[in-house]
Each structure stands twice: as C-alpha cells, then as structure tokens.
Amino acid sequence: MSSSAHCSGSKFLGRLKSPICSSNAEQDDHQLPKFEHFGEAVEIPHGPSSDATLECVRVDMMQNENKSDHHCHLYEGKNNILIVRRAQEFQMTLQFNQPVNPSDKFQIEFYIGIDTNVFNGTKIIVAFDGSQTGNWTGRMIQEQGDECVVGITPSADAIIGKYYTNVAVISDNGISRTQKDSGTDFYLLFNAWASNDEVYMPNEEDRQEYVMNENGCIYQEESGGGRQWYYGQFVEGILDICFQILDDSHMPLVNRGDAANICRIGSAMMNSQDDRGVLVGNWSEDFSNGTAPTFWIGSDQILLQYASKGPVSYAQCWVYAGTLNTFLRCLGIPARVITNFNSAHDNSGNIITDLVFNSVGNQLELNERLTRDSIWNYHCWNEAYLSRLDLPADQDLGGWQVVDSTPQETSDGYFRCGPCSIKAIKEGMLGYQFDGPFVFAEVNSDVYKYTLNTQTGKTELLSVDKTYVGKKLVTKSIGGNNYEPMDITETYKYPEGSSKDEETMKNAERTYKSHMQYDDEQGVEMTLEIPQERVKSGQNFQMAVVFRNLSEDIRTIHGLLVGSTIYYTNIQRAQFKQETFDVTLNPMETSRVQVVVLAQNYVPQLGCQSNLRFVVTAKSLENNQDMMAIQIVNLKGPDLAFAMSGPAKVNQKVFVKVEFTNPFPFSLRDVRMAMQGPNFISYRERLYSVIAPGASITWMESCVPTRSGNTMIYAVLDCSVLGNVQGNWAIVVQA
C-alpha cells in the first residue's frame, strides 16, 4: 500500500467515507490556510476579541530546555527537533508583532496526521482564556513586551507521534495562522515519569534502566553467559524509524495513545512473517543471503537497514527481542529483555509439552506427527511495563507484561504474542488477553515424555517432569554497567510443589488441560551431572550419570547415553556419541557412571552454535521402571581481547585494537568481524579470508570520542563453523 492510501484515495471501498488515517508521515506536506473567515467550519473560541492586527512572527519551541526536563536530551538529530513526553508541561516562547493586550485572543493548535479532528485527538486547540476544547491544557507563564512564554501539558492519553504546530490569532473577521514550519514540529512520547500515564514507573533507578539505558545483556546460558547488546534507542534516525514501523503496520493514528496496542503492533511488526516487518527469521545454517543472527551487535544497524531496504535478514529470538526492546524504549515504554531457560513451545494448545523419543534416545524431528511440541534451550522475549487499562481494574494485572515478537504461533491472525500480564500467568488466570495459555506453557507446562515402540507404532508414557520447563528466567540487573543476571523466576511462578503452585495449576487446568495421572515412585532416581566450570569449545571433559536406589531391593540397570550437537531450539544437528552401560545397585546405594566426551568427536559436528545435548534412557530390569534424563552443555567460544593506545578523551583521536586467536586444529574461513562503540567509534566491519590453526589476527581502528562518560565497545566474530564469538570492553571517556 502506498503512503497516500493510508488516509485517502479514490479506490477506498470501506464503510466509512474515507479510510481512517494511519500515517504520521503524510502531514509533512499538509498546509492549513493562512486565514479562515468565520462562517467556515472552524472552532470558534468563546470570549471577546480584538480588532487589533496582532500577528505571531516567531515561535521558539525551547528545544534544549524542554528536552532536558522531559528526559529526552539523549536523542540525537541534526535538526534539534523538540522531543517531549505526554502528561508533562513543556514551554514555548511566542513573539508577536506588538505587545499582547488583555483583549487579544490567540490559541495554539497542534495536529497529527491529516484530516484532523478535535473529537479523536488528532487536532488539539489550546486557548488561554479559560476555555478548553480538549484534554491538553495551557497556561500563561510570562508576558514581557511582545513575547509570551506559555506552558503546554499534553493529556496523559495523548496520541504519540510527530505533531506540527500553528499559532492562530482570532479577530472579528476570522482566524489568522502562522504558516507550517518544521522548526515548530515536535515528537510526543509515552512518559514513565508521569503518575497518570499508563506506563508510569515509580522508581527513578528503574526508569534509568528500562527507558534510558542504551546498553543491555541478553543471556543465553544459565550461568550468566550471553551477549551484550546495543539498543541505541537514541541514535539519530531511530525515532523516525519507530514511527515509520507504526505507519507500515497501518495502525490508525487514533489508536496510538494506547501502550498495550503499541506493544501488540510492535510484536507483530518486528517479524516479517506476514506483514513485511523488520526482521526475517532463519533457524538453518545458511545465512548466505543476509547476516547471521550471531553477527549482530545491536538494534540500530538493523533498524537503519530496514528503513532503507525493507525486511532485514536474519534473526533468531534474541535478535527479535533486542530490536523490539529498542522500539519500546525509544517510544518511552519501559522495557527489558527476558531469557527463559528450557522454554516450552506448546503447539497443541493444551498447556502440556509432549515429547516423543525413539528407541535410541533421540527426540523426533518437530515436523513428525507425534511430537509437534518442543523445548528450546532458551528463548528470549520482552517485558513492557504497563498499567493494562484494558483489563478489569479489580484484578490488578498491570506491571510487567510479556511481549514476544519471535514468530512461533499466530494470535488473532498475525505472528505476535502479548502483551500478557505476568501476574495473570503466575496465578493461572489464562482467560485475559493476550495469549495467556501460550505464555503459561512456555514457563510452567508439565513435560510428558513418551517412547515410541517402532514395532507397534504406539507411544508409551515414560515419565512426567514438572520442573524441567521454565527452569530459570533472568534479565539484566539494574544499573548502567551492571551486567549480572537478575533471577526473576518468582515473578512468573510459585515454588514447585507449594500450595500456591498447586492452586495455580488447578486454575490453569480448569479450562485448558485434561489432567493425566502418572505414578513415578518406582525406586530408582537418575540424573546427569556436568562440569561446574563452563567447558571451552575444543576441550575434552567428563560428565556422570548418577543413579540413586531409593528402594530396599537390588536394582539392575541397563542404560543408553546419546550425545548430539543441537541448535538452541533443541533440534538435533548431528549425533556424535552413543554409549551403553550396566549398573547394579544395592539397596539405598548411589552409583556414578563416568562418561568421557572427546573434542575430536563433537567439534566436527558443532556448526555455528555451540550446544551439546545428552539424553540418557535406562530401564530397571527387576520392575521394568523406565527412566530418562536430558542435559544441555553450552560450550564457551574463544575470547576477543581489547586494547587502547591511551586514555580516551572527547574530540581526541585514539586507537582501539581487537585481537583473536584461532584455538582449533583447523582453519577458519571467510571470517567476518564487526566493531562499534556508542559515541566512540562508528559501526565498522572487516573480512578475513582465512585464519590458520593457532594463528592470531589484530584489528586496529582509529576513533574520536564525541561524548564524555561511560561507554562500551562491542565486537563480534562470525563464520560458518563458529558463531557466538563476541566481546565487549567498558571504557570511560574523559571530558
């Protein structure tokens, strides 16, 4: 659809006279008449008027003062356009051709879009005679000679977007307006500092983290490992792109004052699955037509590319989450990225995760008829902080809301998820919009494990695990450069087995699940123990299969261990190990079977993501008890080393160096590297055709810091057989 079709067009065949305006961009060419005679369709303010030929000759939006007061001073832009937040006063200076008399009448008019109307909030008139035509208010702060300083307070539910401004002087004959001037345009955003805004966040430390912080960490391992991410919500051009995304979604302007609606549209538009949104997903190993998901440093390059070329290739869950986080924070909605470890994907909608295994312990592929559900090693989504005015007030379901843009399942016809109240998920109240059952299953579904009898084709229930899914949920700790993970599992679920947990499950099962009984008290407990220290890729390591005989009888165990390389979505890439063993357990005895894992076996099968999965199936011969245990090993990739030629100072050249050594016994080919540092070094890339075994490369770049204070240098390395190699370096730029 062309941009002009958003608001008007002769081919419109809807039930309205014309389409509802859904473009914030069209107004740039829209010009109101300079003079309107009374008798035309104009709003006539009450009160006396003057015959004096008063005229407004200059409007000063007081950008610097207002942007600082509204916490918008970090937004970068060449035109220094005003950016303010709703439900908070901003000031304007109006200069007239003569001093303003008490009998003179003037008003300020604000417009968003075209075909504006005072009744739907797209046209706002602020008068200074005590009359009011909308929810915005104005006051006279100071009058001195021919200048007036006025204060304007947008309503707490005002439409967010780009407004243009006219000053209108009213005489007996009509209304005389200033001509449209881009210098008086301004952006209006959500306001986490205003108590009557639906995104209000009461704690200043939280606001600094979840609205103002440009740097984050997206965790991919329970131990706290992951990748630091540059959100860049204040980078020049990003704010315009975020509003372009809303225009591209054809979201009506009149709906853009509702944060829940913005979150839902953002969730749909971050993926290109059904609406040519921002990012194209790819969970294969062929990224030849785009950029590997592991190569992105942050959101700014993604959004800038989208604005110029359309959907950007490629993304996986953390890329979607990082980019949506930028979108939300840029518009003023407090947001953070969440990682859920052992995240279930319930395809069947029964909030149970059914996994079917064949006789050698490998999970069947997800397109198999018997196992449509899956459990990802981790999954990243977003939380947005809203009061949820669309939900019953007596339920108190505001606060953090799940918003997920990774295209997994459709919601109301589009690939999107949320906003979904975390409080509702914790209590098992799954009837409230949006997408409660799906989110609940991700964090709290029971896992039913089946084995497939290849002779009969039937499945047999092997075990039920109530603790595997949603093992741990984390987000970045509060504090600018504090990259420790914060465990937020308790915000989603009560402790397993507690009375409150049982109550939650009953609430959830009442509508969405048929209860299945399973007796797992059969005498022997089996677990897998992996090294406490993170294993480096290319190292040998040991693990153990642990059996505990909780019965007073001897148990003879026959077991099978299968090791595979996998994608983080738990899809098998290749099997590299298979080992059988037999154990005899005396009553109440514990026994460990040591398993040696050799790098020479798994390294050739790794691919670009370093995850190993071990599945052990075992049977107690005396009573036919079946057991199964699954354990994921995340391998640590090689490190990047940083150095700098001297102290970093504003406007002074300094050299940054990144070093990498290939630790593998094979060459790395077509290696891409990227480097970026906010307000320090612009985004740069370099390609190395080959890095021999044991060889080192050194990449040095000159840069000139532009702002003092704390910043971060990000670097990443990627090739077809090695992903997730990235590093960062925190530095302080001196004034």
Architecture blueprint of SSEs:
Elements: E1 35-37, E2 56-60, H1 63-69, E3 82-85, E4 90-96, E5 105-111, E6 123-127, E7 137-144, E8 147-153, E9 161-170, E10 174-177, E11 186-189, H2 204-212, E12 215-219, E13 226-230, H3 238-248, H4 259-269, E14 279-281, H5 300-309, E15 312-315, H6 317-330, E16 335-345, E17 352-357, E18 374-386, E19 399-404, E20 410-411, E21 414-415, E22 417-421, H7 422-427, H8 436-444, E23 446-452, E24 459-465, E25 472-476, E26 485-487, H9 489-492, H10 499-512, E27 524-529, E28 541-549, E29 555-566, E30 572-585, E31 590-597, H11 599-602, E32 611-620, E33 625-634, E34 641-644, E35 654-661, E36 668-677, E37 681-691, E38 696-703, E39 709-719, E40 722-733
Helix pairs in contact: 3-5
> Beta-strand level of the residues, as a percent range?
35-45%
How many alpha or pi helices?
11
Helix residue percentage: 10-25%
Low-confidence stretches: 1-5, 40-51
Categorize the overall geometry. Answer: globular
What is the number of independent domains? 4
Distance linking N and C termini:
49 Å
Family: Belongs to the transglutaminase superfamily. Transglutaminase family.
InterPro entries: Ig-like_fold, Ig_E-set, Papain-like_cys_pep_sf, Transglutaminase, Transglutaminase-like, Transglutaminase-like_sf, Transglutaminase_animal, Transglutaminase_C
Pfam families: Transglut_C, Transglut_core, Transglut_N
Protein name: Coagulation factor XIII A chain-like
